[in-house]
Amino acid sequence: MGAGTATIRVTVNGRPESLQVPVGLTLLEMVRDSLGLKGTKEGCSAGDCGACTVLLNGRPVNSCLVLAVEADGHDVTTIEGLVGAGGGDDTGNDLHPVQRAFLRHGAIQCGFCSPGMIMTAVGLLRANPHPTETEVRTAISGNLCRCTGYAKIVQAVMEAGRMMSLPGGEGGRGRGNH
Amino acid sequence: MATTSTLTAVGRPFERLDGERKARGQALYAADIELPSMLHGRLVRSPHAHARLLGVDPSAALAVPGVVAVLTAKDVPGRNAVGSRGVQDQPILVTDHVRFLGEPVAMVVAESVAAATQGTAKVKVDYEPLRGVFTPEEALAPDAPALFERGNLCHQARTRRGDFDAARRQAALVVTNVYRTPMVDHAFLEPHAAVARPDGGDAVTVWVTAKTVHPMMDEISRILGWPKEKVRVIAATVGGSFGGKPEIPLGCLVALAAVRTGRPVKMVYTREETFQTSAKRHPYVVRLTHAMAADGHILGLHADITADAGAYTTESRAVVGRAVGHCAGPYYIPNVDVEGRAVFTNNPAPGAMRGYGVPQVAFAHEIQMDIIAARLGLDPVEVRLRNVLKPGLPTITGQPVLEGVGAEACLLRIRELLAAEDATDPCPPQGVPDRNGELLGWGVATFYYGNGRTAVEDVGRARIRREADGSFTLFVGVPDVGQGSDTILAQVACEELRVPWPAVKVISADTAHTLETGPSSASRVTVVVGRAVQEAARRMREFLDSGGGADWRPGDPLPEMAAEYRTDSTSLDKNGQGSPYGTYTYGVQAVKVGVDPRTGKVAVRKVLAAYDVGPIVNPLLFQGQVEGGVTGGVGYALFEGIRLTEGRVANPNFHTYLLPTALDSTAPVLAETVESHDGAGPFGAKGIGEPASIPTAPAIANAIHRATGGRFFELPITMEKVYRALRR
Amino acid sequence: MFEITSVAKPATVDEALTYLTRGGATMAKTGAAQPGVRLLAGGTDLLVASRDRNLRWETLIDLKNIPELHGIHLSGGTLRVGSTTTIHELAASPLVAATLPPLAEAAGMLGSYQLRQRATLGGNICNASPATETACPLLVGNARVQLAGPTGTRTVPLCELLLAPGKTALESGEILVSVECAVPERAHPDLRYGGAYIKLGPRRAMDIAIVNVAVLVGLDTDSVCRDARIALGSVGPTAFRVPQAEDLLIGQALGSNAVAAAADAARAAARPITDIRATAGYRLDMVRNLVETAIITALERVTPAGL
Predict the structure, then answer these.
(1) Which residue has the higher pLDDT, B453 or B153?
(2) What is the distance between the alpha carbons of residues B165 and B290, in angstroms, rounded to a whole number?
(3) How close does chain A come to B212, measured CA to CA in Å?
(4) Contact: B237, A111; criterion CB under 8 Å
């Protein structure tokens, strides 16, 4: 038995890619190794920690538990693809509102969980622009953070939701690029 | 001492300097580093916890396509022994004696991770399994197999003052209990990783995930048999440390592999490898005997502390030393007899972890204080107030408490806050459910924590350069491990330079550019390194104020100032007496829990904290440390524990080793600081990193007792244990 | 990187069956690490197991592109859920919440938000974990599963499909197509129903259950219990119904004595083991306490009369 390969077409951060990949390659490995997008992190490779979260067709998934071939024909967004997607603010800052809120609230410490945490939050806010605190906590409960104790992350996600609902925010513009 | 109200950079909730890079996914962690023609390493690890290594045959592995080299102990050109603090007893690749399960026996280096992994399966290793020892008790038995020629006793430490036996005879009440704490994992989200690049034939650069780089450089140079100048170690962005990292053998192995193959080499541990083979918090057994006067004063303390050191010394000596000095808690006790020991076993070797031996003893002394209060019919806060250290009184190591210390103020403030809670939202009596069917209770725990390394002169160094554009660059040897030290130190520098934020850029933890300044641990960075930064900045300011640098022209060397700060801590005498730290952080946490009587499941509802931590350098980062520390304490109290079966970690992943999730750590944490004036750090600041976590577990245990009547002497306090206590 | 030679992506069940027959494999887990062919739904169990146990696959048959396997439908008083419907879709479905609330509740507690986007109902059932989130609510829904195989389709009750940890009654070459539950209120228009699902784990998210309980009660206009269904998970080789407990409720106006008696009967019927998560004794007590709580909660949720 050998390792087969397959050709897949995926849209990654708005850009169409055609890739020849080993059939056993994970979406995480495709993003990090084939495409060199190192923002997505590997924390456990078992779906337990959420560090590898990316959006697949706008929904957050553990990219360690998705095969690249399963993403064939689909749309993938990584942390690198968020910038600009939420519309800049009046200072010309191109960060997504969720990223901005994470900075403002001190929701980032070591930062290793942050890309996955931010992607989960973006996925949640696309599906549910006005989550309650419990809904936010439920959504990020698959993203482990050992540094912050989560409080500042929850505050940041809720504030980002409010910001995105304002005119000009991502929600106000019809849910961004998906 | 300055108060922060007059300051412009210190005391401000600035966003962290590396935050945007991290939010964008642009921060480079060690596993993210890609270099041209890079090779990948995987380790062949011993499946036995204790064995003779008879032989390693790499020939079949070398035949695997893509495998470039297989390294064994024979390939180590220098001294095959690493460690810390002067004790080097751990080989990076086993020579003849396997001492723990998962110990590296060979390293396969290949063109891809997949090829390296295939190669590891083909390395043929012959072992002769030996009988192992898996508890300190087994290890100290007369017929126990020895891990080292010198026997299985790794280290012993004592503290004695006064006459405990006399105190015991006088006592109105003597309370003895045994407390047990488990081995726990740092569980940083970033697994261990390292990359090495050969620079020509005689130099190497190594990127590691680490709390310290200079000792890593020392270890690599010894392994390679090279002068230190030929080894450059850089901390990549660090994905959490909590006392762990670097994994010293890993850094040495990639360096060796890069030198041997002449190509860059990366190695990343899986989560399972990180759990099975890297450092942990030591499991302790702590036996405490308090001799009490009828009025609630502590007359004497006897303590016996045993730590499982695992297979190698690592940091066990200092961890046990700190535990011995801290096992009384922040109380004045005139008669003390404490003995602690670390014992070698065939378990994975613990090392430094947030609190460095103190969370274990704090769990013991703070439950003991509650038991004493109950036996004497005193309020738990009151019994602590009667004994708390005040200025002028000595600690159990004989170090006089400095003027301006606010330990008592912390307790008084918590008493006020608890009274207010009781007035507005009282808990029903013990064992009586509230209207939601929950049993409720508050518990308190007090702690103190010496800032800096124990009983050694702790040295901080820093260098500041004025750039051509008038901005400043601060060079410090410690990495920012996520706690925000780069930001804190830049705030100190900005303040002292009297320049607007953020006119100071930070370059940290690169042995080619930064001075040795000790590790990012021991809650020492703000205090010890911060003082060096302050001094370097002061010198730079005075230099510039006096016209220095005014005639600088492009091409001239840039103006630079360096400074060093040394703590006035002293070594300890044979009775463990001395002043082991420059300054201490003090504090109290009060935790409210709710217990479901049907299941024993515990929820932490609210946390109040009062700290004597000096002025806060950055309130945003301070609150983050406190909230994160409390959450770590919740895990330690309720969920976490490495389960070992003959040296094998039975729960080496995050679905069996349980960390608190966002739904488990929901309690608001209301942290206050009290006025204090003893802080040796810049502008009076003290360290908060470790102290944030230390009192949480005992406070939770005391709160569960208040709610249910159950006493718990062993962590973690699982819901099944709580349920059983309720049934009794 | 997993060791997989090919992934097939059939567009119809028939095509999938052809791949299966060609490979001679089965979706039922035998526990053996046989190389070969396997059905791939969400992958959240399969890939974790493949990594843990170093499994290699000749062909994975990805079922996610087969429209007839996907979706939630209500027709003729029957809730029908396609096997590749995701757990998130179940948790978020107003249709499921209205017709079989314990199933929606349980789905919302499975794994994490991310895992629920991938994990499927069919995969969760066929993984046949005794602690599986969906089995208890489906058992109280009297679920029947539709299986397609080389010789045609057959329908079996879910309780007959689940055999042992990791083992189902799927035959070689069969695919789980859908799960059907008769909506209780439609089957018994004279009764008003309430349901509850409780999962106990050490944490409040991301846990494998120590005990799971689903309850459905149907009351007549006099508030006498005429239909009672109780299922337990994690306390036997599979999730299972406890008729001994159910019988103690039927015909009763449910006061605390009847509820306690049923809870005791459920405890007596449980056959838990001691493992790293809990002792058997604790599990037994939890069955009793949580069945009691679940019945009380279900009664509180019974639709008031006249609505």
Answers:
(1) B153
(2) 11
(3) 15
(4) yes
Please state whether the peptide bond connecting residue B716 to the residue before it is cis, i.e. omega within 30 degrees of 0.
yes
Residue B8: the pLDDT is 92
**Tens digits of residue pLDDT in A162-177:** 999 887 665 444 333 3
Could you tell me if A44 lies within 8 Å of chain B, comparing CB atoms? Answer: yes
Percent of all residues in chain B with a pLDDT value above 90, rounded to a whole number? 93
Give the pTM: 0.96
Tokens of A59: 């929904």
Q: Which residues 124-163 in chain A show a CB within 8 A of chain C?
A: 124, 138-143
Residues 216-255 of C with CB under 8 A from A: none
Supply the pLDDT for residue A1: 41
Task: Flag whether pLDDT at B531 surpasses 70.
Answer: yes
| Secondary element (H or E) of residue B266 | strand B265-268
- Give A65's contacts in chain C (Cβ within 8 Å): 43-44, 47-48, 115, 118
Instruction: Identify the closest residue of chain A to B621 by CA–CA distance.
Output: A106
Same fold, A5-81 and A97-165: no
Residue-level pLDDT at A172: 40
| Domains of chain B, CATH where assigned | 19-27+459-566 (3.30.365.10), 33-130+192-268 (3.90.1170.50), 284-453+575-727 (3.30.365.10)
Q: What percent of chain B has pLDDT over 70?
A: 99
Q: Specify the CATH architecture of the domain A5-81.
A: Roll (3.10)
For residue A102, the chain B residue with the least C-alpha distance is B23
Phi, psi angles (nearest 5°) of residue C253: -80, 115
Q: What is the pLDDT of residues B3-20, one digit of tens each?
A: 556 899 999 999 999 999
What is the topology classification, in CATH, of domain A97-165?
DNA polymerase; domain 1 (1.10.150)
C88 vs A contacts (CB less than 8 Å): 59
Residue type, position C66, single letter:
I
Cα–Cα separations (whole angstroms), residue B682 to B507, B508, B524, B534 = 20, 19, 12, 6
CB contact under 8 A, B599 and C207: no
Distance from CA of A48 to the nearest CA of B (A): 6
To the nearest whole angstrom, how far is the Cα of C84 from the nearest Cα of chain B?
24
Nearest CB to A62; choose among C40, C114, C205: C114
Shortest Cα distance, chain C CAs vs residue A51, angstroms: 11
- The identity of residue C57, as a single letter, is W
Indicate the domain borders of chain A: 5-81, 97-165
The answer to whether A35 contacts chain B (CB < 8 Å) is no
Q: What is the pLDDT of residue A91?
A: 59
Interface check A56 vs C, CB under 8 A: yes
Q: Establish if B601 touches chain C: CB-CB under 8 angstroms.
A: yes
Q: Write out pLDDT tens, residues C150-189.
A: 999 999 999 999 999 999 999 989 999 999 999 999 999 9
Q: Does C206 touch chain B (CB under 8 A)?
A: yes
pLDDT of residue B4: 57
Residue A85 pLDDT: 62
Q: Does A38 touch chain B (CB under 8 A)?
A: yes
Q: Strand, helix or coil at C101?
A: helix
| Cα–Cα nearest to B66, from B94, B106, B26, B38 | B38
Q: What is the ipTM of this complex?
A: 0.96
Extract the tokens encoding B144: 């126990």
Please give the order of strands across the beta sheet that includes A5-12: A15-22, A5-12, A75-77, A53-56, A59-62
Judging contacts by C-beta atoms under 8 Å, the chain C residues touching residue A56 are: 117
- pLDDT one-digit tens code per residue, B651-678: 999 999 999 999 999 999 999 999 888 7
- pLDDT value of residue B263: 98
In the prediction, which pLDDT does A169 show?
60
Nearest in space to C96 (alpha carbons), one of C197, C176, C165: C197
Average pLDDT for chain B: 96
| Length of chain A (residues) | 178
Cα-based torsion angle of the residue sequence C259, C261, C266, C268 in order, rounded to the nearest 10 degrees: 160
